[in-house]
Amino acid sequence: MRILLINPNSTRSMTEQAHRSAERVAASDTQLESINPTSSPASIEGHADEAMAVPAMLAEIRKGEARGIDAYVIACFDDPGLGAAREIARGPVIGICQAAVQVAMNIATRFTIITTLPRSVPIIEDLAEAYGAGHRCRKVRSVDMPVLALEEDLAHTEEMLVQEILKARQEDGAEAIILGCAGMSELCDRLKARTGMPVIDGVTAAVKLAEALVGGGYATSKVGAYDYPRTKEAPACRLVDAS
């Protein structure tokens, strides 16, 4: 099967990191491709960045459909444009937040999400609620670091995450941790080893979920909300008499 991982922002190094994480868990017969638009914001930190990133992301999915891609992974934890992407795609489209939440709900009764900036906290809280996990998500925590700062000093990022994970265990009663940014994905195994906590990376969770859905013969429903967008003719131009 062919899976296309799309990083909706334009930072190539983050795309490459997500691809490495995905490759570690992908099945041997999965053809994994990764791409990011070049016209999107360098990072997605809030509603405005999401809105600006979605059109180019949807364009990549349209290209993927023409090439016969079987499933898509949207590698941004805000799951931007997920509904729109599912309207365009024939096969499954997996957001890394939804995938991570679904994994957490299967392996723990309570979990905490750790994200980058405080402004992302309410966005992720709303997503957890929308995905039916509001009562299971103990807290959304922030390390108060911009997305692009995560890869500038990985050792510092790791230490910040370790501190928050230990707090989540003691203060939140969390039984598992979700990493709330694709830029944290490569630290997942180290964080598990250092804290003794189950740590879930949405990139790898989404890839395995995509493989399972495609392998099971499941495709995006085209009955109702996720039906293909209707074709609309452009309105005819009309001359206006200004006299």
TrEMBL record:
Signal peptide: none annotated. Keywords: Plasmid. Gene3D superfamilies: 3.40.50.12500. Residues 28-42 have a biased composition (Polar residues). InterPro entries: Asp/Glu/hydantoin_racemase, Hydantoin_racemase-like, Iso_Racemase_Enz_sf. It comes from the Bacteria. Residues 25-46 are annotated as: Disordered. Belongs to the HyuE racemase family. This is Aspartate/glutamate racemase family protein. It comes from Ensifer adhaerens.
